[in-house]
Amino acid sequence: MLGIVGQIILLLCIAAAIAFFSLEVRKRYRLVKSGLKDVNRLDNPVGRLTYVVGKVMSQLCSIKDRPVAGIMHAFIFYGFVFFSVATINHVVGAWVPGFSFFGKNIVNDIWFLGVDIVAILCIVGSVYMGIRRFAVKPDGITKPVEISKSPQSAIVLSFIFGLMVTYLLNQAAEIILHDGQSFAAWMPFTRATVPLLQGMSHSSLEIANAVFWWAHILMVLGFLVFIPHSKHFHLIAGPINIFLRTHEPIGTLQKIDFEQVEEFGATNINQFQWKNNLDFFSCVDCGRCQDVCPAFQSDKALSPKVVMMSLRKHMMHESENILGGKDISEPIMEKWLTQDEIWACTTCGACMETCPVSNEHIPTILEMRRAQMMMENNFPQELNAAFKGLETNMNPWNMGSSTRADWTDGLDIPLMSEKQEAEYLWFVGCSGSFDDRGKEISKAFAKILNAAGVDYAILGMEEGCCGDPARRAGNEYLFQMNAEQNVEVFKQYKFKKIVTCCPHGFHMIKNEYPQFEGHYEVIHHTQLINELVSSGKIKINANGHGKITFHDSCYIGRYNQIYDEPRNVLKAASKDGFVEMDRSHNKSFCCGAGGGRMFMEETEGQRINHIRVKDAESCGASTVGVACPFCMSMFADGINETGLEEKLTVKDIAQIVAESID
Amino acid sequence: MSTILVVTEIQNGELKKASLEAVSQARKIANGAGADVKALVIGASVADKASVLGEYGADVVITAENASLEQYNPDVYKSIVVKAVQDASADTVLFSATAQTRDLAPRVAAALGVTVASDCVGINVNGNDIVVERSLYAGKVFTNAQVAGDVKVISLRSGMFEAVKDAKAGSVESMDVPAVESKITVKEVKKTGGDKLDVADADIIVTGGRGLRSAENFNLVEELASTLGGAVGATRAVVDAEWRPHDEQVGQTGKVVSPSLYFMIGASGSIQHWAGMSGSKCIVAINKDPEAPIVKRADYSIVGDLFEVLPAVTEEMKKLK
Fold first, then answer.
1. Hey, is the C-beta of A403 within 8 angstroms of any chain B C-beta?
2. Do the Cβ atoms of A507 and A636 come closer than 8 Å?
3. Of A395, A569, B233, B300, which is most buried by a Cβ count within 10 Å?
4. pLDDT averages per 10-residue partition of chain B, 321 residues
5. B137 touches chain A (CB under 8 A)
6. In chain B, what residues touch A469 (CB-CB under 8 Å)?
7. Torsions phi, psi of B271, nearest 5?
8. Residues of B with CB below 8 A from A393's CB?
9. How does A235-248 read in b/e, with b if 16+ C-beta sit within 10 Å?
10. Which one of B237, B254, B276 has the shortest CB-CB distance to A637?
């Protein structure tokens, strides 16, 4: 118990800390709320809550991609959980001597055994984190140097370390002063601290105890005030952000309603949706995203971490204007982010997959692309050729749209316009129709379908680009034209499912065409082939391809969780065995062609496809199986350009299977 | 129809080929309709152009000559053309559809208060009626349109009309350049790529790919290009490897070209490249792989080692010259 003066001082400190904390939190709440309308993020609240509690309490959010640092983080996290009750006891104890939240019982004993253990674990964790950040310096947290250097981490780690030390010393002093062996029976580490203080005189021990007591509570309050100002705001925003995470596949973009909206995308910081804003405040600056980002890893300007950090800084810088309803003083480009950064994204989704607080980087980056494309007319000029092609001939290479079905010459491939009805509508896609390599995939897939007696038809000249390159490059208007045209064509025919060879068309029609009243059951050709093989409709004789590996395409893998089907097929088709690359499944590394990058120059840093080709080479495979015509292009070029023609071949799964059914 | 005025264009001191096509086409129409052809030439030093224009069928060559006319200026050029139309009482004005015309012809038409038919691929004259043919939807359909107005302003797509000689007097009339206040001053004209022929302008292009194995080996490509008076082109892979500069890159993310003759040497011809050169009139491939896409698509293909084939081709071309 404190004297009356102490009680008053403590009360004032607590009131001040809560006031400062609340004001700062309220400011951030209002900034988040000032964002534009977003989709409903409160559907299935029970499911959302279960997910967030499970994820946070298990600490898998932190542990899954960085096990060691994640476990250290878990130590500190559980420290906060256990110390909540210890802090209540600590504060109320200023008025009620010996106050115990749980009372004097076994629950209290067990809880404080927990406190005792986590106190030590927190010391271990904070020392580990300090060594890691300031001595080991892994790239993820220390690069890019400019934006990553900040005293925040040092302050917070000292707070945590200090809190634990003062707690232990305070408790040890209590044991000596009040002969507290009984209450400390369950506190082995506290008791182990006692010898440090033995030998002090009673009076100096009392003074020391008061110092420990006050130091501890003042640090708690100081930490409270500091939290909202720092990345440690994730303590509050992180779980909320995970709760509000999107239920749509990674990277799915929202429709712009051109009838209603006057300005497109985000030129200014106040033009993001409110959930994007919450992302900025939830970001922990941990850099897991940039560790897996193909752009950052190939030395390009973009880091998803920097996008979040810069926009958060920008938002705080403009907070008075935003909250005061005044004009924003400067646009995002070029001061806060640069053109090179936003155009380097391949939309592969690796950042979103790994983010411990479920941030959605891709929609944020693409909102900025939309603004640069549609409002500012500022985009990589080589995209013009692709857009022109999409406008005039509905394919990015501007090949005559009347030649779209020319690849079928001499083959027995039915047209929807002749059949009117089929079980499968095969959406061939632009690569499959025009690109020589893509056409080989189409021919192989046709051979499989014919061999299995599948009832299918293609659209031929009536088909147009799915619109993925246009939408990912921010040209929403052109995309909507493509999508609406295709939906109109689909409406004319009867079919049960749509099958595509291209993951981009697959994702677009399955997940983004519903925005245009196009609701279809869509499957990827790897799924259909797997079904045909496993049901015995096609018999394959395993061929010698040498060891075979599989490159997961972002748009069927991370976007749509198709991981096993292609592997089953490859394992059945190869007699020399299957090997995985180091980076596979949801950790697969993009080929570099997504997000419209297929139609842009790659001049900065290394070429992403060269990095990925080396992954394939080093796993010991001699054939790379792919399931995407863009990946096919990037691999074929990459193999050529790195001089690995003799060691490595790339083939689509359809080609590998078609060769095995002769 | 009594007088056709053809507005010609000078680039790097030479009359553009497209201008000769327009003069020649005007001559053809005039022969049928019994009209005069007057050719307007604007520039700093144009006197020597009259004889050429006469050869292609100009009865009269109107020269607007002045040191300040070296560079194109929309206000000044427009006033000159309008004055020439009025002085010559022309009822038809023909341009070739160049970049400059895209800017100039609408200004002239607006000043005359008439319409403009741009980028025409065909033209039919019947008495006073002129019907032009234009291409729509990237060449998928053609429309025929009758040109309205007292003065008919028409631009002809270059390469669609033949430039044939049909010599006429080509007598020179020099006109006074009207004094015009212009808000526009041309400060400098910047060119990339220096003196060498730009791939986008070249009529013959020799493109090399990774099959050349090194930057040094491009001298083989350069040799063929210079023998033929053509330009050197490059694939993306070659530019990426820094064997060639980016301004030589042909393809989706480089330049889009449509020369008369396109050589593709040691490159497979990916769709990204094809998108930039599929408009070439004649494509010749030299490649060791008979399965390479370009070999199947080219008009002529030589399957073999380029290090043997290419010098032999260059040698033969030298003999032909």
1. no
2. no
3. B233
4. 93 88 94 92 90 94 91 94 95 93 96 94 89 83 91 91 90 90 84 67 91 93 93 92 91 87 92 88 93 89 95 92 76
5. yes
6. none
7. -60, -30
8. 138
9. ebbbbebbbbbbee
10. B237
Tokens encoding A309: 């950090």
Spatial CA neighbour of A293 closest among A359, A377, A391, A241: A359
Contact A590, A348 (CB under 8 A): yes
ipTM above 0.85, yes or no: no
d(Cα A19, Cα A224) in Å, to the nearest integer?
10
d(CA B303, CA A350): 44
Structure tokens at A202: 């009673």
| Residue A181 burial (C-beta neighbours within 10 Å; 0-12, 13-18, 19+) | exposed
Separation of alpha carbons A478 and A361, rounded Å: 23
CB atoms within 10 A of CB A79: 26
Secondary structure of residue B234 in the 3-state scheme: strand
Contacting residues of B for A600, CB less than 8 Å apart: 253
pTM, entire model: 0.83
Reported as type and span, the H/E element at residue A5 is helix A4-33
Residue B272 sits at the chain A interface (C-beta within 8 Å): yes
What is B20-78 written as a DSSP string? HHHHHHHHHHHHHHT-EEEEEEEESS-GGGHHHHHHTT-SEEEEEE-GGGSS--HHHHH
DSSP-assigned letters across all residues of A180-218: TTTTTTT-HHHHHHHHHHTTS-HHHHHHHHHHHHHHHHH
CB-based contact (8 Å) between B237 and chain A? yes
C-alpha A628/C-alpha A438 separation (Å) is: 9
Copy the structure tokens of residue A450.
């014919």
